[in-house]
Amino acid sequence: MEIGEKAEQLLKLELCDHCLGRQFAQLGHGLENHTRGKIVKKYGSELKEQHFNERPDSNIGGECGVCNGVFDEVGRYTDMVANSLERYQLETFLLGVRPPVDLIEKEEEIWEEYGVEFTEPIKTELSRLIGKKLEEVTELNVNFERPDIMAVIDMREGKDRVELQVNSILFYGRYNKYSRELPQTEWPCSDCSGSGCDSCDWTGQQYKGSVQEIIQRPFIEQSKGIDAKFHGAGREDIDVECHGKRPFVVEIREPLVRNLDLEKICQEINKDDRVEVFDLKETHHDKPAEVKQLEADKSYRAWIEIEDLEKADLDALKNLEGVVDQRTPSRVEHRRADKVRKREVRKVDWTIEEDLLVLDVQAESGTYIKELISSDEGRTNPSVAGLIGQSSACVQLDVTGFHIPGDDE
Ligand SMILES: [Zn+2]
Ligand SMILES: [Zn+2]
207 alpha carbon to ligand 2 midpoint, in Å? Predict the structure, then answer.
């Protein structure tokens, strides 16, 4: 259908400027549909594409059998959203609209009759107009990729409400753990599975606190978020201390406050002797996956009990360096596939401390250190026990370093 012919036919429907103009939404640049509607009304069957360069005076709103005058409500909807955003500290938003079902049906009837060429959906026009007005009223900015908040106006019959989806804020940092009685993440009580009972003092937790809990509490308090998720770069056992600054990301869900005083949070966390955090900074939403998949060499210090330390040929320990075959350890067999993994031990060094062998090991990500010492009944080869021909047991273990590629520390 020619533009002029389409205009002539549509004019008979006595639409408002918005609904008329919207049928030509892809023609002209930098003007709104209600201005297009004015132009269509002026030229009728003589309408040409270049007429959309004109800028006649135009107004929002107007009565109409298609949109039922919904554009008269733009101001009210804007206030509704602005009010619902008031309690949040924000910089950006994205607005969505669910128009009344009735309007969508009438719009589809017009498209069937007069074609979809040059048009745009009414919901696009509504969200753009209300979004622009919201930017003026609130001084926030629209962001399509990663808004602080997503607001959807439900205009459907009987609804008339705003739904909010508040995006998380994320912080990256590194931590040390100075306790052999502290789990990394929250650990539900084994008697009550977390619901609370006498044996856990109604905390629902098996242990008093966790690295996760100590780190996330000040974040939640300051941001007034509803809860948090903790993502560590690998795990350490409860009885393992970490002095190597393990990377982590903490994700705060539905915060009211987004600009946090990280120095204060850092001080608050470090008041607890069991955990120390370093270099807190805000980060992006891909960081948890990045941290979880981080394949960094790690350094460990292990205190090892040897059957007869005096008779042990410790020089043989140099042969630990190189490729090690590790069959899935018996202690994790029930939750990991049973297979042999090849890992590289980069460097070993040792001293004697009283009656213990103290071993420093740098190894590839994923090396099982306790098994590298005990041999796990021959499942790990070579091993400390295998090389010196005596039973050897790791009695204490520390993580002493993370060797992150591109990291100067
Ligand atoms: Zn209309
Ligand atoms: Zn319990």
Answer: 10
